[in-house]
Amino acid sequence: MAWMSWTLPTALFFIGIGVILVGMTAWQIASPCVERRGFLPLDTTRGDRLFIGLLSSAFIHLAFVALTDANLMVATVLCAIWMIILMRWG
Amino acid sequence: MQTKVENNKAWFLVLPVFIIVAFSAIIPLMTVVNYSVQDIFDQNTSYFVGAEWFKQVMLDSRLHDALIRQFLFSLTILLIEIPLGIGVALMMPTKGKSASLCLILVAIPLLIPWNVVGTIWQIFGREDIGLFGAFMSTIGVDYNYASDPFDAWATVVLMDVWHWTPLVALLCYSGLRAIPEVYYQAARIDQASRWAVFRYIQLPKLTNVLIIGVLLRFMDSFMIYTEPFVLTGGGPGSSTTFLSQALVQQAIGQFDLGPAAAFSLVYFLIILLVCWVFYTTIMNMQKDK
Question: Under DSSP, is residue B48 helix (H, G, I), strand (E, B) or coil?
Fold first, then answer.
């Protein structure tokens, strides 16, 4: 595994993604979701909203890196709030 | 009455694909993520730099230019290849030996390897030994793809159109063959014009294959590397340096693995976003119908 040049932050990032995917699978088995329309202008399932949330979070982080000198943790906190709003009302 | 037995054993059939994708895509992607946050000198020497490479990549004007060029290129070839592919498919014979012959002839450019396509057009466009270059010279057009940026662009676009329009044409051809004859019979009873048949029967029935065609051509053109590399080498200047060539220059030419990895991830995210937007828009258009 040394050739993959692991670092602690990237390992934590992938563990986080893995936990989210396993959690979402378990949630889907426990209570299967139906498509619905929230504030997003399209019908979405839980998985769709997660994908939209993760992709938009990546772009929010990139915009933060490019446009500000602020600590990236600020972007991460904003993204976490955005994910909760999206999953609940999206 | 027989009851359906449900089990999840079919998932095991997907396992080989999952293993292949893990080795060919997921593990390399994870490695790239790891590289993107480090300054790597050799296999044993690397330093964590956080988001520094991402900042450098996001503010690099060369990459901005390559990104604009890339979008312009993909948009241009989609605007040409999709209507042209539909047109070719509509004109192809539907039955008999001529249909088989036509299919083979149309498919030939798809069978040629990318680097050979680049070489063919490199020779084809030369004024001294190439048919196209000599023809342009004969009709009095000052054409030189090696020194004029517009000519270089036109040649790269023409080459891509020649290489990939057959894919769109074959997809559309298969879509057209799948339309049941009763639709055409109904159109004949209604005395529908040729345009009305195309607009209200053929085009709606082609939506699914066109989704695949647009997505495939967008992704492929957005990742184009070999053909322009062989034909123009990214020049003249950097007028045909697209994203993947800029990336290769950085990763292999300069061996800047960290910035190149950050660049790859931004590139990946853009492709993911555009494909998702395309796919969602088209699927929603279908739902609304």
Answer: strand
Facing residue for A5 by CB, picked from B38, B276, B284:
B38
Which CATH fold would you assign to the domain B61-288? MetI-like fold (1.10.3720)
| CA-to-CA dists, residue A76 to A6, A68, B50, B133, B153, angstroms | 21, 14, 14, 55, 41
Question: Which of A2, A43, A58 faces B269 most closely, judged by CB atoms?
Answer: A58
Inter-chain contact A7–B37, Cβ cutoff 8 Å? Answer: yes
If phi > 0 it is left, if psi is from -120 to 50 it is alpha, else beta; for residue B149 that is alpha
pLDDT at B135: 93
Q: Give CA–CA dist B185/B191, Å, rounded.
A: 10
- Binned at pLDDT 50, 70 and 90, residue B3 comes out as low
How do residues B99-145 score in pLDDT, each as one tens digit?
A: 999 999 999 999 999 999 999 999 999 988 999 999 999 999 989 88
Q: How far is B35 from chain A (nearest CA, A)?
A: 7
Q: Which two tokens stand for residue B63?
A: 């990459």
ipTM: 0.92
Return the H-helix or E-strand segment holding B38. strand B38-42
Residue B11 predicted with pLDDT over 90:
no
A43 and chain B in contact, CB less than 8 A: yes
